[in-house]
Design goal:
- The protein is mostly helical.
- Helix content is 67%, strand content 6%.
- It has one domain (20-265, 308-455).
- It has helices spanning 7-46, 49-82, 85-119, 126-155, 174-178, 183-212, 217-251, 253-260, 294-300, 321-350, 358-366, 370-384, 406-436, 451-455, and strands spanning 160-162, 168-170, 272-279, 284-291, 389-391, 395-396.
- The chain has a two-stranded antiparallel sheet. It has a two-stranded antiparallel sheet with strand order 3-4. The chain has a two-stranded antiparallel ribbon with strand order 5-6.
- Strand 1 and strand 2 form a beta hairpin.
- It is globular and about 65 Å long.
């Protein structure tokens, strides 16, 4: 059945499929862990029940998302040995220790305190439980730190030496490997994307319940917090993305050429192509809608600055332009949509209609899953734009794969598709089911329901809104 297919292409599709599923869950759990940390901190600081209720509400969802992220990550790591053994052999001395550091620091930290976070809310003191929540939140960030360091090194490899057998060996300093040129930009851009992804989900859930129960205090609080995140952080993400793009232009110019659709060099200012159909056979963008010299203005901060095109790159070193061109536009388009949502929420807040403006709520619901689409589109832009290399400029993808026959890779790809959609589809359905339930509007102030607050010596504030606090 798969005899006519290229085994390397099938292995790439399999890895892309599994990592896309995996990326969904960390991009949510990183932001949600920090959201839970903020909620519990506000709960203990103010004694307001609404933060307690929201913490418990989102804690269940976090537990499922975290578990699915762990399972999907374990499966993905096996493919380094099965489908990419040559890459593992050559890059293992550099990649292996970094991956081990992620397990020894981040995963052990998360796993060690996750049980306290999930099951100890009424069994340990409030300070210890809050410390556990903070530890899990910090652990998710440290995990992102190490994984993105590995990924960034594959894009901008530094600090290595080539051994006698062709292996990449660590140089005299691990700092040069860990903090490679693209890592700081990729870390900031990815972590902010995770926070925005979470804010869109939280905002969509809050908007959904506001439409149905406008007086629900929990829905109001989560929606307000999510809109603050969108309005304040989306502009920061745009600036971070711009800085990341300039760094990519410096170290991976072919990727930026593909993103911009610049088949030809522009010695007197390059246009910004908004839309079009890349035609790699004819080396042009058909039906292009463009702004003259705007690309040079963005990338060089000078409208007349020259920009090189793909005509300066050998054909066998060009990334797939069509995929990179469109995935980049999807990511950027969603980014500006989030920015517009933040401005919309500020307008509604200024008019005193944040909780009554149904159009805002419907837009927030519509953009609820947009963050996941944006992070996957960004990942596709980054990884496909690195082609034809696994280690940029040094090790080609075609030379990194295991010597497997196409039927073997194809059969496992089909199995992954079936199992992933069944297992993670069920998990996603259950998360949506939990989100469909409104947060509790009120809990009685007894020691069982509010153990952490009582043991902390904080007296819950009396209800002033008719039992909705």
């Amino acid at each position: 059945m798969f005899d006519a297919f290229d085994p390397v292409l099938l292995a790439r599709i399999q890895f892309g499929f599994t990592v896309s599923f995996h990326f969904i869950f960390p991009s949510f759990s990183i932001g949600l862990a920090s959201f839970l940390m903020v909620l519990e901190g506000l709960w203990l600081a103010t004694g307001k029940h609404v933060y307690d209720n929201l913490y418990r509400y989102w804690l269940k969802i976090f537990a499922i998302a975290f578990a699915m992220g762990v399972v999907s990550g374990i499966v993905m790591s096996y493919q380094f040995g099965t489908n990419w053994s040559v890459f593992s052999d050559k890059a293992g001395p550099v990649i292996g220790p970094l991956m081990a550091y992620e397990v020894l620091t981040a995963f052990f930290l998360e796993a060690g305190f996750l049980g306290v976070m999930l099951f100890g809310i009424n069994k340990v003191g409030p300070k210890l439980h809050f410390a556990a929540t903070c530890a899990v939140a910090v652990g998710t960030f440290i995990s992102a730190f190490w994984i993105l360091s590995v990924n960034s090194w594959m894009h901008t490899p530094t600090g290595y030496e080539i051994g006698a057998n062709g292996q990449f060996l660590p140089g005299p300093s691990w700092i040069a490997i860990i903090f490679n040129p693209s890592f700081p930009y990729r870390l900031v851009h990815t972590v902010i994307a995770a926070y925005l992804t979470t804010s869109l989900v939280v905002g969509a859930v809050g908007a959904w319940h506001l439409i149905r129960t406008p007086d629900n205090r929990g829905a109001r609080t989560m929606f307000s917090m999510a809109m603050w995140m969108a309005s304040l952080v989306a502009p920061v993400q745009i600036l971070a993305g711009d800085a990341h793009g300039l760094n990519t232009l410096e170290h991976q110019p072919a990727k930026v050429m593909a993103m911009e659709g610049h088949y030809e060099s522009h010695p007197k200012g390059a246009p910004l192509i908004l839309f079009g159909i890349p035609n790699s056979a004819e080396k042009r963008v058909d039906y292009a809608i463009e702004i003259p010299k705007a690309s040079s203005l963005i990338l060089k901060h000078d409208p007349n600055a020259p920009l090189a095109g793909l005509d300066t790159i050998p054909d066998d070193q060009e990334p797939p332009v069509g995929v990179v061109f469109w995935s980049f536009r999807i990511m950027v388009g969603i980014g500006f949509a989030i920015f517009a949502l933040g401005l919309f929420s500020l307008l509604a807040r200024a008019r005193g209609r944040l909780f009554e403006w149904r159009l805002l709520h419907r837009v927030a619901i519509l953009l609820g899953p947009a963050g996941f689409v944006a992070v996957i589109a960004g990942w596709i832009t980054t990884e496909v734009g690195r082609q034809p290399y696994t280690i940029y400029g040094l090790l080609r993808t075609a030379d990194s794969a295991s010597p497997l026959a196409a039927p073997a890779v194809g059969a496992s790809l089909v199995a992954f598709i079936i199992v992933y959609f069944a297992v993670f589809g069920a998990g996603a359905w259950y998360i949506l089911k939990l989100m469909a339930k409104p947060p509790k509007a009120f809990e009685k102030a007894d020691p069982v329901d509010h153990g952490p607050i009582r043991s902390a010596g904080i007296t819950p504030a009396p209800s002033v809104d008719g039992g909705k606090s």
